[in-house]
Amino acid sequence: MQSQQTHPIIVAGGGIGGLTAAIALGKKGFKVKLLEQAPEFQPIGYGIQLGPNAFHMFDRLGITPSILRFCNKPQAGIMRDIMTGEEVTRLPMGTDLEQRYGRPYAVIHRGDLHEALLETCAALPNVELLTASMVEKFEDRGQHVIVTMADGKTHFGAALVGADGVWSAIRSQMNPSIVKPQSLGYVAYRGLRTRAEIPSDLFENNVVLWAGPGYHMMHYPLHSDQLFNIAAVFRSRRFARGEANHSGPDELKEIFSGACAHVQRLLESVQTDKHWDIAVMEPVPSWTTGRVALLGDSAHAMLQAMAQGACQAIEDGVWIAEYIAQSQGDYESAFVAYQGHRQLRTVRMQYQSRFYWEIYHASGVYADLRKQLLTRSPQEAMESLSWVYEKPTFPEQMEHQGVGIENLSV
Ligand SMILES: Cc1cc2nc3c(=O)[nH]c(=O)nc-3n(C[C@H](O)[C@H](O)[C@H](O)COP(=O)(O)OP(=O)(O)OC[C@H]3O[C@@H](n4cnc5c(N)ncnc54)[C@H](O)[C@@H]3O)c2cc1C
To answer: Is residue 247 assigned to a domain?
Structure first.
């Protein structure tokens, strides 16, 4: 246990980023209090992709085996034209990618990932998890922070980590003038089916993206191939025209009527009772003030086109603990250094995700350009992601090389 610590470090939000930060801090001996607004820890019940970069972080925390036991390893990431079915590009995801980056590309049910992270937290006696605890505001008193909850209760903390997602209350208090996330006019429908519900000719152990003009479909199997995860996303034309009745299942069908027969059959597996609005956020200039810092979607929510939002939240969780541990109680300097280390990498991720989003949804001549841009060998496709997937250097390796943590490049 960190001997100089009188108050715990408070983590607001028990999503993937908050739980990772709690583990990373807990394993370094800090007292941690995690406050989650929901009555229980329950992520939405769909799949999530984890690049090798997430596993480098799990390695750092010593939890890779507990995550891997739930993972599927797809063979390839394939982009196909949604109208013709023609293959546009392919990223090897099996042993080739694992050998290149030292860790696999994997897919996992969000519930399983949460379970593995929660199990690890529960085994750390210095990590306290509280549900039904909605953070409303904070006050930085210089030597500590006071966090006030929606029910009026207060918690004292040595520092506050805002892992409270894209609509972050902590970010709003920290940067009141910042523009809130904006709806893109796109919505996502999802489906999770058992293996038996999917006709065998539609089932494949790949991450498949069917790219089309203003709409796409994505799918992959989960849970040792027992489940099939599917998402259908489109830009609502009715929303763009300002119509009130937009983005419903009838518009989903209307837009996907241009897709090839294979995709039309897959569309039957999408659940139409619920959909999610897709919002986009500009980079947040400042992630920290005094003893308070942001991580994950609260700092850098991104479009899901690179499947990196959660992976980046995991990286943040690990790195914020590294900087706090190095700072010997100087949280302010730790958070400034943490932002310096993380910000441009995540902004690049946000920017590139927007670019890929455009690529996915290209039409006409832009779709021809997409084909030209993505014509490359599997090796080139793998190398293009080296800045995302490569293993980073951690502090003690850097000290060994005579490099200070504050000078680490991303
Ligand atoms: C359709 C879709 C597909 C995606 N696919 C992928 C993928 O394949 N790979 C990937 O890496 N990423 C993916 N992402 C992105 C990923 O889901 C997010 O980036 C990630 O969940 C962010 O984690 P987080 O912990 O920062 O925030 P969140 O997961 O949003 O967690 C925030 C937590 O804070 C809690 N909270 C909120 N406000 C308060 C408060 N005031 N007080 C206390 N608690 C609070 C919330 O209840 C929640 O539990 C996808 C996103 C979408 C929409």
So the answer is: no
